[in-house]
Every structure is written in C-alpha cells, then in structure tokens.
UniProtKB/TrEMBL annotation:
Annotated InterPro entries: Annexin (IPR001464), Annexin_repeat (IPR018502), Annexin_repeat_CS (IPR018252), Annexin_sf (IPR037104), ANX14 (IPR009117)
Comment, domains: A pair of annexin repeats may form one binding site for calcium and phospholipid.
A GO term, aspect molecular function: phosphatidylserine binding
Protein family (similarity comment): Belongs to the annexin family.
Lineage: superkingdom: Eukaryota
Positions with biased composition (Low complexity): 28-46, 63-73, 104-116
A Pfam family matched in the record: Annexin
Name this polypeptide is given: Annexin
Length: 468
C-alpha cells in the first residue's frame, strides 16, 4: 500500500484524504486473481481522514486516478519513485532536498535494469505452478537468492571521495572541545556504503579509529547515536546483539529487531561477523540466553532457510499452512509452538501475508488474535513481530518507534537503534513517516522531538530527514 502519492501527482480534493474505507461487506478488498498485495509506499495522511482498518489486516487498496489496475497477488509492485527518494545526484551528494521528477506511476524499468530489491517474480498468485510442483511434470528452478541489504554484502568500491568528510570529522574532535554539530552534519546523511568508505578513509588518513575517537569525545545518548551511525548497519547489529546478551538479563526486543524477518543473506552476514568479532558463534550466544521453545524458535531463524523473496506464492501451499496453523493452535488441546514458529520463520513475507488473509477468510478471526491468545512472553512477541512485518513492514516499523516512546519514560536505546535502522534507506524512511502519520495522526519528527533534547535531539532529527 502506498502512504503517499507519486511525486508530481496532485493531492485529492480537500476533505477526502487518500485513505478510503472498503465497500460494506467487502473485507479485505478483493482483487481479481488472488489476494490483496502490500504496495511499495504510503500516501501522506491528511488530518481528519477516516481511521485505518484494524492493525494486521491487509491494507485497503487505492489506485491513484489514471493508474493501471493492480496486478494479481504475488506480481511485482508498480515501479514508483516516491516522494522522499534520494535525488539522482552524484554518489555521495546530500540526501536532503527536493526529489527529482518521478517516472509515471506503474512505468516498468528500462530494458536490462534490475527490478527493485526484493520484488517478487512476474508470476502472480494463482498462476500455473512452476516446473517441479505437483502436476507440473518437471523440476522446479530454484528461486533467485535475495541479495543482502546495503552494507551487509561484500565490501564495494563506490564513486565517492570520503577524504573531505574524514578530515572534517577529525577537525571536529581534534584539540580542546568537540564540534558536535559538525559530527551530526557529517554522519547523519550517509548511506551504508558511504559510512564504510568514511570509516576506512579516516583510518587511512589519520591512523585513528573513528568509533574510538567518537567514544572518547562524546557521551550519553549522543555518543550511542553517533557510534551507531559510524559503525554502519551490519557492525552495529552485531554489537547490539552482543550487548543484549552480555551480563545479567536479556534484552529480547533488541534480539527481535536484529534477527527476525531478515533475509538469509543478512542472517549469514550477521553470524559471520559476530564470530569474527567475538570468537563465538551467534547460535551458542543465543542458546546461552534463551531457553526451551523460544531458543528453538531462534535456532530456526538462525539456520537462514527462509524462502527467498522471489519464491512465488502457491495457493495449495498457503492452504496447507493455514490448515497446519489451525491444527497447531485452535484445532487441538494445547499448542504446537514449534510448528507455528517453523512456518512463520521459513516463509517469505508474501506467503505469510497470504496465510494471514486466508486464515481470516476461513476461520473468521485474525491470525494475530489467535497468536496472542495461544502464546505469551517472548515467543508471543517474536511471532507477532514476524506476522506484522509481513503484513505491512512500514506500519510495523512505525509502531515499533511509537512503542519506544510510549509509557513512563523513553526507551532511548531502542528509540535510537530503530531510528538509525529506518534511516539507512531514505525511501523506507519516507514510507515509515507516512505510515506513522496515518496511524497516529502525528508527525513522527515532532513526536520524537517531544521526547528528547539537545544534541541528541538534533542528531535524531537529522536522521529523520529534518533540517537542523
């Protein structure tokens, strides 16, 4: 679902807003040929529009005037450069500023251009099964592996000179006092590949470790935020896991954030770097801090055997999983926890979203409600995390940010790590901000500003795309 219109498209007439309730008696909205599909972005929410559907339900579909009809479930989403996407400037140009004109909504990429990261294959839900499935009379071609997220793959050379920013960072921390504004300005708008280049250039030019210098020159939550940015997404994930399992107690929310609903490539990268940094396998570390069936759940996750994003959604497989989930929960006395964990940990998001839709159609209650009733504690939180991420990943990230600020006091470490994780991809950030406004009828940056102050606030505002 899109939380904002394609760039350049006029907003709807006043009083209507972008969100439309589905017609009475039609929930969730049906599409010819299959299940509703999560779209690539969210339209900006205008205050006073109708409330969204219950969380976890497939988002209602609304195509802008003149847009092409929606493709069957599982087909690739239309190509769209949404508002908030970084301009097509030379690599390393600041991420802030007006976006470039976008291609018409639904326009396919030029010949030879790769589809968006994680886009499903052209075959839609309900299409004939590929070779190798029952009735096909052949062997199935393996799904294309989902590529690692930016910053999780092999080191890359980029066409960007990091020496100017490396010198600016050193100047900001050299001598008496620290120029916190310079640190914020340099580190807040870099993408994962730029951060990696900046860290290595700083080491080469000044024979110093950038993270160590930041730790010695700053303190409190500003230090934690700057260090998170300077490490980059993969290295920061590894240190977050280590800190979450070091010492008494375990910070389950951090473990969920880092490990759940990740691609196989990202899981393997995290496991490899964790062993390299701490000379211990991540599996052993998790076993030492979790117990019983929750431990087994995360062992399934760490195996990295999740269906690739390009694997097509097959109706007979969805029906089978829906029946197995029912048999493991409502259909028996007691609960087969491991079967539920296995299904939600080894299916891709498209498949899980189809399961959730089909479960409600067949048994007249949301799968999320069933999980909340049948499970408790960390396992309940982990399973709901996987289900909500698959149902609507932008709305899920928005609710995680709100959860870090709700209640007595701000959970600063969670808030920082979640904002930093969202900010690495500016298109993702724009969608999360739109989803937050849609759900809470507030501006995300203003909400965060009300919880924190000082240089810490300025850095978080910069990470959220605000000018500081």
């Amino acid at each position: 679902m899109s939380y904002y219109p394609p760039y350049g498209q006029a907003p709807p007439p006043q009083g209507g807003g972008y969100y439309q309730q589905p017609p009475p008696g039609q929930y969730p909205p049906q599409q010819q040929g299959g299940y509703p599909q999560q779209q690539g972005g969210y339209p900006q929410q205008q205050f006073g529009t109708p409330s969204p559907a219950p969380y976890g339900a497939p988002p209602p579909q609304q195509a802008p005037y003149g847009a092409p009809q929606q493709a069957p479930y599982g087909a690739p989403p239309p190509q769209q450069a949404p508002y908030g996407a970084p301009p097509a400037a030379p690599y390393g140009a600041p991420a802030h500023g007006a976006p470039p004109p976008a291609a018409p909504y639904g326009q396919q990429p030029p010949y030879g251009q790769q589809p968006p990261y994680g886009a499903p294959p052209p075959a839609g839900y309900g299409a004939p099964p590929p070779a190798g499935y029952p009735g096909s009379g052949g062997y199935a071609a393996p799904a294309a592996p989902t590529p690692p997220s930016p910053g999780y793959g092999a080191p890359q050379m980029i066409a960007w000179d990091a020496s100017h920013d490396a010198n600016a960072l050193r100047q900001a921390m050299k001598g008496f006092g620290t120029d916190e504004k310079a640190l914020i300005r340099v580190l807040s708008d870099k993408d994962p590949l730029q951060v990696e280049a900046l860290r290595s250039t700083y080491q080469r030019l000044h024979r110093r470790d950038l993270v160590a210098d930041i730790e010695s020159e700053t303190s409190s939550w500003l230090e934690f935020s700057l260090v998170s940015l300077a490490r980059g997404p993969l290295l920061n994930d590894v240190y977050l896991l280590y800190d979450a399992m070091d010492g008494p107690g375990t910070k389950e929310s951090v473990i969920n954030d880092v490990l759940l609903s990740r691609s196989n490539a990202d899981i393997q990268a995290i496991k490899s770097l964790y062993r390299q940094k701490f000379h211990r396998s991540l599996e052993d570390a998790v076993r030492g801090d979790l117990s019983m069936k929750t431990e087994r759940h995360f062992m399934i996750v760490l195996q990295g055997t999740r269906a690739e994003d390009s694997a097509p959604v097959q109706k007979y497989e969805v029906d089978r999983d829906v029946q197995e989930l029912y048999n493991a929960t409502e259909g028996k006395t007691g609960t087969d926890e491991i079967r539920v964990c296995s299904i939600l940990s080894t299916r891709n998001d498209n498949h899980i979203r189809a399961i959730a839709h089909e479960y409600q159609q067949r048994y007249a209650r949301p799968l999320e409600e069933v999980i909340a009733r049948e499970f408790s504690g960390h396992m309940e939180d982990a399973l709901l995390f996987q289900l909500r991420h698959a149902s609507d990943k932008y709305m899920h990230q928005a609710t995680l940010l709100e959860d870090a600020m709700t209640g007595m006091g701000t959970r600063d470490k969670l808030l920082i790590s979640r904002i930093v994780r969202v900010h690495w991809d500016r298109t993702n950030l724009a969608n999360v901000r739109g989803a937050y406004e849609k759900r809470y009828h507030k501006n995300l940056a203003q909400r965060v500003r009300g919880e924190i102050s000082g240089d810490y606030e300025r850095l978080m505002m910069a990470c959220l795309g605000e000018r500081v």
